[in-house]
Structures are given as C-alpha cells and as structure tokens.
Design brief:
With 481 residues, this protein is an alpha/beta fold. It has two domains: 31-157 and 316-405, FAD/NAD(P)-binding domain (3-Layer(bba) Sandwich); 166-313 and 415-474, FAD/NAD(P)-binding domain, CATH 3.50.50. Helix content is 38%, strand content 24%. It contains 15 helices and 24 strands. The chain has helices at 2-27, 49-57, 80-83, 97-101, 166-169, 176-194, 200-206, 216-236, 238-241, 261-273, 319-327, 367-390, 398-405, 441-454, 458-474; strands at residues 40-45, 63-69, 73-75, 94-96, 108-119, 124-129, 143-146, 149-152, 156-158, 171-172, 208-212, 245-249, 276-279, 283-287, 291-295, 301-305, 308-311, 315-317, 338-339, 352-354, 359-360, 416-421, 424-431, 434-440. The chain has a seven-stranded mixed beta sheet with strand order 7-6-5-2-1-8-20. α6 runs antiparallel to α7 and α12 packs across α13. The longest helix is centred in the N-terminal third of the chain and has 26 residues, at 2-27. The structure holds flavin-adenine dinucleotide (FAD) and 1,4-dihydronicotinamide adenine dinucleotide (NAI). Residues 78, 161, 163, 212-218, 220, 249-252, 257-258, 283-284, 312-315, 364-366, 416-418 line the site of 1,4-dihydronicotinamide adenine dinucleotide (NAI).
C-alpha cells in the first residue's frame, strides 16, 4: 500500500511539474530563426483543421512558412453547436494561430487576408485584407505574394443550393460569427415574444425555431437548442418556454444518412421524446423574412412561419477553389473542389497540394480527414527535406520526390460521434473489421472525453471543462449581448 501511495504521489508530482512547465513554456516562447533566403517558401492557405495541423507538424527549419487566412485563429468545429446556446463560451474553442506560430523554430509570417486569386504560372497569389471588426473594409488594395510550394486548405463554404432568401434571412452554422448570430437571434425572438402586446399568432411565429438539414450539424444544433430550452429557458421564461417549438426539416427519407440505421432510429426516437418535430422528405424551397416555403412529401407546398431558421445543408467549394480550378480546367472538372492524387497533389498543377474539405480525395469532408492529411503532408515534407539535407542536396524537387519516396496517403477512420441532446450522444466506431454502434448517456461521456482529448491545446481543454462545470452549477447565460 505504501509503494502504491508513493507511485500515486510521484505520478501526480511529475504530472503537475510537466503541466506547470508546459504552461510556462507556452507563455514564454523561445527566440526564433529568421527567414532563410536559401530555403523554399511554403504558403499555407487557411487556419482550419488541415492547414493548422500541417503547421503544427511542419519542421520550419526546412522551409520559410507563410500562412494566409481571413481568420487569425483555429476553430474546433465539433463543439461549435454548443456555442450557439452558451453551453460553451466562444473563445474556449478558438486557438490564436500566432501562439502556434511563435513556437516554431523559425519565424512564420501571417497575413490576415483572403486569397482571392492565383497565377500558377508565376507562382503568385493575390491577397485581400479582411474587413476589420467594425465591418470597415479600410485599405483593401490587393497584395501579391509568391510561393515555391502552396498548400490549399481553405475548407468549404455553406451551400444554399441557390434557394431564394437563404443568404438574407437564415443563420448558418459554420464559423464562430454564425454561432454568435444564432445566439443573438434566438434571444431576440424570445424577448420579442415576451413583449406585452404581441398577438398569439405572432408569438407562435417568434417561438418557432427551425433547423434545415438533418446532417450532423443540424442534429447537434437541434439537440443543444432542446437542452437550452429544457435546462434554462423553462426556468427563466416558464410560460413562453412551453410554447417554443423546434422543427427539423430534411429532404431525404431520414436524418443522418451517413450513420448506421440503428443510430438513425435512436436519434429519431430521442427527438420524439424531446418533442422535436422531424419532417423528412420535405424540402425548403424559399426562405422569406418571417416564413419559409416547403415542398411536402406529397408535392404540395406550405408556407410556415418561423422566428429563427438555421440553415445546415452542407458545403460547397470556396470561390478561390474555382479560381484555382480555372487554371487547370482540362483536368479539374469537378465543381465540388480540387481533384487531388493519392499524394494530395492538385491534379494538373505543379507544386500545389490541397488538404481537407477543399480536396476531392475520395474521403468525406471531415475534421479527422483534414487533420490526418495535414499531418501526413507535413511529415512527408519534413522527411524529404531532412533526407536532402543529409545528402547535402540543396535544390530538391519534393513535389515529384513525394511519389518516389512515400506511400500514398491513407485515411484511418476513428469513427463518428454526434451529440443529440438531453445528455445523449451516438457513436459509430470501427472495431477491427467491423463497426460498433452505441447511443445514450454513457456515449455522451465518451463524446465529452474524446473531445477534451482532441482539443487543440491544454488552454482550450481547460476552458471547455471549466465551461461545463460553470454550466452545471450556474446554468447557461441568457443575456442578450
Ligand atoms: P476549415 O476547418 O473549414 O478551415 C478552412 C480555413 O480556410 C479557415 O481558416 C478559413 O478562414 C480559411 N479560408 C477560407 N477561404 C480562404 C481564402 N480564400 N484564403 C485563405 N484562407 C481561407 N468533422 C468531424 O470529423 N467531426 C465533427 O464532430 C465535426 N463537427 C462539425 C461541426 C460543425 C458545426 C461543422 C460546421 C463542421 C463539423 N465537422 C466535423 C466538419 C469539419 O469541421 C470540417 O471537415 C473541417 O473543418 C475541414 O477542415 P479544413 O481545414 O478543410 O477547413
Ligand atoms: P450534410 O451534408 O451532412 O447534411 C445536410 C443535409 O441537409 C442532407 O441530409 C440534405 O439532404 C439536407 N438538405 C439539403 N438541402 C435541403 C433542403 N433544401 N431542405 C431540407 N433539407 C435539405 O451537412 P452538415 O450536417 O452541415 O455536415 C457537413 C460535413 O461536416 C459532413 O461531412 C458531416 O459529416 C461533417 N460533420 C460531422 C459532424 C460529426 O461527425 N459529429 C458534425 C457536423 C458536421
């Protein structure tokens, strides 16, 4: 028993020392080497899952690295739905990219800008500064920069399928700004419905919360909204809360088409218990300011009033991806993104790779895929450069060598997890050559621990856990900012 105690105390001491040292080191980065003109310049587009994981794993001793993104932070998207109702505070899942950059051995340049065009012949990119936080576009004269190697990790953008009125009237759930907007609009609708002279019809409209799209984003958002209603709104708006209706609309015969049938049934029955209405085989055709038009399963159309409408129907290619495709139009024939080979090289291009949602590599648009691709590419480039340095070669062509010296990229699925509300989650996990499925409260704890583990930094994990503890003791904040 005494030995066991010693082991426990010893482990705790080592753990605490290591954590303290990591925290100190994090806030006190070492001096960095300057750009080396003899090295190749590698430009990374984006600060999402693909590009940030690439930056994290890339050895900057071998390359001069430049990052371009309109977002100066990495966003942990799997917990974004939790930010729409305040289960988690926004900044807890954001990691400033400069923290990562300052810990690289060589300085990394960052442009807070959107890449709008590319000249592949001259290896030149056009960048436009993003608007400032007040919305002022300021000096937006385009800037040109050059690259030797380019990695495109710009993700996708929301797909409205050209449905009229969506851009103007719906909220999306893709970026942190979207979550902020949803939270504000939700409280707008509720406070407006609480106002004295509102008619019954108007109040019902304001309290009708609609989610379009039964993919994982729509399901997770509906689950979070239900929790907010159940745990918090019912306490602070007891009369109104009873009248809030949540409807989820899906064009296909069932929600979560990519999940196992058992999990689909489990989700649908949990939603039924939670009084979330699911309308399947129903397609939203137009979104107006206060109502939207659907095509019902029998082909008829209805006009349904709403207070808040969240549009979560998947993604399409970013405009800059279309610009890149246009340069290699003969081979880049798929409008959904950049066709890449098994080494993630953009087909038809030289010295350009693509990772994540913007790359058509045969895998689903998932964070796991993007981060594995970023890691794989960084490691390949590190190893090719190290080998070249060992052989005293200065001008190696890593774009061609990657095929000769590496095995193709292969995605290894870690399974799918989704939160469905009322402290239940679903999981579809690979197990040897089979998949095991699970749903319920235990899966919810697994979901929580998996995400705490996957968060970008110790700082993020600490903030997320403390948000969960805060919510447990004090509930979610209902103030309208
Ligand atoms: P992103 O992470 O989208 O990053 C793209 C980056 O490019 C951003 O920094 C953006 O600002 C930048 N950018 C855009 N345009 C330009 C430009 N013109 N120039 C320069 N930079 C540009 N996947 C999972 O596997 N598990 C989950 O649980 C999960 N949950 C999700 C929940 C939500 C709400 C959402 C929206 C998605 C979720 N996903 C999940 C999907 C996952 O987020 C994406 O697959 C992943 O973000 C793709 O990574 P990426 O690097 O390709 O793109
Ligand atoms: P999605 O593409 O997975 O689902 C969108 C759904 O919207 C589809 O089922 C589609 O039939 C439906 N739809 C399209 N147009 C419609 C209309 N007009 N009316 C009604 N329904 C309509 O999109 P989602 O959920 O945004 O996910 C995007 C990607 O991110 C996917 O690859 C997904 O797997 C991933 N993701 C994964 C998560 C997880 O693993 N927990 C969580 C969130 C996203």
């Amino acid at each position: 028993l005494r030995t066991l105690k010693r082991v426990i105390y010893g482990t705790a001491l080592v753990g605490a020392t290591y954590t303290g040292w990591s925290m100190y080191r994090n806030r006190n980065p070492a001096e960095q080497k300057a750009f080396d003109p003899s090295k190749k310049t590698l430009v990374l587009l984006g600060t999402g899952w693909g590009s940030t994981t690439m930056l994290k794993n890339l050895d900057t001793d071998h390359y001069n690295v430049v990052v371009v993104s309109p977002r100066n932070y990495f966003l942990f998207t799997p917990l974004l739905p939790s930010c729409t109702v305040g289960t988690i505070e926004n900044r807890s899942i954001m990691e400033p990219v400069r923290l990562l950059m300052r810990h690289k051995s060589r300085e990394v340049k960052f442009y807070e800008a959107e890449c709008t065009d590319i000249d592949a012949e001259r290896k030149e990119l056009t960048l436009v500064r993003r608007a400032d936080s007040e919305g002022s576009k300021g000096d937006r004269e385009p800037v040109k920069i050059n690259y030797d190697y380019l990695v495109v990790g710009v993700g996708g953008t929301v797909n409205t399928f050209g449905t009229p009125g969506v851009e103007e009237n719906a909220c999306f759930l893709k970026e942190m700004g979207d979550a902020r907007k949803i939270r504000r609009r939700l409280m707008d609708s509720i406070e407006s419905a609480a106002f004295g002279d509102v008619s019954e019809a108007e109040r019902d409209r304001l309290l009708h919360m609609v989610v379009v799209g039964g993919g994982p984003t729509g399901i997770e958002y509906a689950g979070e909204l239900h929790d907010f209603l159940q745990d918090d709104l019912s306490q602070w708006y007891p009369e109104l809360a009873k009248k809030i209706q949540i409807t989820l609309i899906e064009a296909l015969p069932n929600v979560l088409p990519a999940f196992d049938k058992k999990l689909i049934d489990y989700t649908q029955s949990t939603f039924k218990e939670n009084q979330i209405t699911i309308l399947t085989r129903t397609m939203v055709k137009e979104v107006k300011e206060k109502s939207f038009i659907v095509q019902n399963p029998d082909g008829t159309r209805s006009d349904i009033p709403y207070g808040l409408l969240v549009w979560a129907t998947g993604i399409k290619a970013q405009p800059v991806v279309d610009r890149i495709r246009a340069q290699f139009a003969q081979v880049q024939t798929n409008g959904r993104g950049l066709l890449v080979d098994e080494y993630l090289r953009v087909k038809g291009a030289r010295d350009i790779w693509a990772v994540g949602d913007c790359a058509l590599s045969g895998y689903a648009p998932l964070a796991q895929v993007a981060s594995q691709q970023g890691k794989w590419l960084a490691r390949r480039l590190n190893s090719l450069a190290t080998q070249a340095a060992r052989e005293n070669k200065t001008d190696v062509d890593v774009f061609n060598l990657i095929e000769e010296k590496s095995r193709p990229f292969k995605y290894s699925s870690q399974g799918s997890l989704a939160y469905i509300g009322s402290e239940k989650a679903i999981a579809d996990l690979p197990f040897f050559n089979r998949n095991i499925t699970a749903g319920g409260v235990a899966t919810f704890w697994f979901w929580k621990s998996a995400y705490v583990n996957e968060l970008f930094s110790l700082r993020n994990s600490t903030l997320v856990v403390s948000d969960w503890v805060k919510r447990f003791f004090f509930g979610r904040d209902i103030s309208r900012e």
